[in-house]
Amino acid sequence: MGMILAAAGLTLLVVVGTVVAVKVSRSGGGAPPAVAQDADPSRAGNEAAAASGAPDGARDPASPLPSASVPPAQLKPGFRLNAGQAMRSVNGKYTLTQQPDGNLVLADDAKKVRWSSQTPSNAGAYTSFTRDGDLVVYAKGGSVLWRSATGGKGALLEVQDNGNAVVSQAGRQEVWSSQAEQARLYPGQALISGQQRRTADGRFALAQQPDGNLVVVNADKKVIWSAQTGGHSGASTRMQTDGNLVVYGTDKQPLWSSSTYGSTGVAAVLNADGNLVLSTGGKVLWATTTDGISKLTLGQRLLSGQSRAAAKGGYTLLQQPDGNLVLQNSAKTVVWRSGTSGHPGASTRMQTDGNLVVYDAAGKALWSTKTYGKAATYLLVQDDGSAVLYTAAKKAVWTSKTA
Fold it and tell me: Comparing C-alpha atoms, which of 399, 374, 365 is closest to residue 384?
């Protein structure tokens, strides 16, 4: 039967059986408003370090799992699995093993993989069930390769007879499970290069590609949504505890975000239809199919080379590398432009005050829709060849056709 190993006194008990947010002030005379970066580190600083797999200075000194003739089915905080060590369900059908290649793998008795941390090619890695209840795969050098993000909550790790690995609170309430994680990014979790989430039927995957792009692909590996963050090798994606989903470069700078900060308990779930949804308490905050293709939603930015496209693909709003924001048709004929060329590295922001602004690389406003205070919440690229700013009530407050 399974054993519970307790960390207290190292005794063994054998049991039977930000992103950057933007604050805006008006600069007078109808000019585009100035911008100031929010200094809150929870949106872009501290969370970025964890997302990029940076060394964790507070790495928990968990104790090695003692040798046992029967691998334990349950583990309390304060122990680690070194290479070759394992846990096993009471019925003996499922084993959670720290492999020598660095991958933490849950497999059945036929050696079919039910779940893995997706951390191979990291010889010397080990898994720690830290003293604060976080389950973490550490690289030999100390960087975080994967974590359950259950710090402060996890009280028990268990390999169950149904093939599920579960971290639960003291009252046995589940806070992480291998089955749920297949298609989910829990708050505080990250995807580093090469890692993914996949629907139960395997038809769709959310993948952090080695080139830095975060994508949703179908069974034919066709990209059906992209954060457009390619060209940034080593980038990672973080489901932040402030509710924001952010792609960070290796320099810890945000490359894309859902701009959904301000809510707790937000998880990113890849639905069976391939729609990536950010929600909390049953409330949907953002989704790829409704917000990720044709809309620039409140707080989002277009960096150089990034774009939004009309639903039928006939028109694209593009932030050009030369600084110009342009709306072009499928023949790449420009039908509207901001007139901000000559400013390489410029970006466009859908601000929280309702203003759409093009900023140069130094943060100076170059152009705006002058719609601050009009409650615009998103920019929509439409099939009629226009880009329109709408309020939450779907009232148009600006359109490229009359600009």
Answer: 399
